[in-house]
Structure formats: C-alpha cells, structure tokens
Amino acid sequence: GIVTTLQARCSxxxxxxxxxxxxxxxxxxxxxxDLTEPILSRFDILCVVRDTVDAILDENLxxxxxxxxxxxxxxxxxxxxxxxxxxxxxxxxxxxxDATDTRREQAERDTDDDDGDE
Length: 118
Prior knowledge:
Elements: H1 29-33, H2 37-40, H3 55-72, H4 74-91, H5 97-117
Helix pairs in contact: 3-4
C-alpha cells in the first residue's frame, strides 16, 4: 500500500466550567476544570475568563439584554409580558418593581454568602 504523511490543521476552541461553579484562584487550572494535564497539553493557549460577582452590574446587564430584545421584538415582548403577568399574579409571586426588588435582594444575599467562602 501507500504510506504517506498528510498535513492537517485544525483550530479548536473549547470551554469548561469550574468544578465547584466558581473559579478558585488557589487551585491550578487543571484542578479548577478537572481536566488532566495530558488533555490540556494538546491546547496551545489556555485562557481563564472570570465573572466577578456584582449584583448591581448583573442587574444592569440583564436589563440591557431584556430591553434590547423588547426593542427588537416589540410584539413578541408584549405577548410574553402579558403571559408573565397572568401567571405570576395567579400564583401571588411578586411582579414588576416588587419582583425586581426581590431578585436584587436575593442576589445580594447570594453575593454575601459567596464572599464568606473565599
């Protein structure tokens, strides 16, 4: 038969979430993502992108995304809002500004809980 060597080029972009849900700077990269060194050695570049915990910044980003969606799809957004209002009013869950305050308070409690873990 024919024996030959072929050039092969391949680009791979991969992502991995930290094992415990948050990146622990005290651990090395392979321990954070629970991948072995032989697997990691196949990649030329490893980058860590960390999300800092900030309830206000997260709320602002979420509002921006939702408002952008509403501007792009106003008819869909109106139907979804009406369905949301009907469902949550029926269950007695907070709606509108009360819901936003409740979510913000919960996010702040979550942030306070996370601060104690580090």
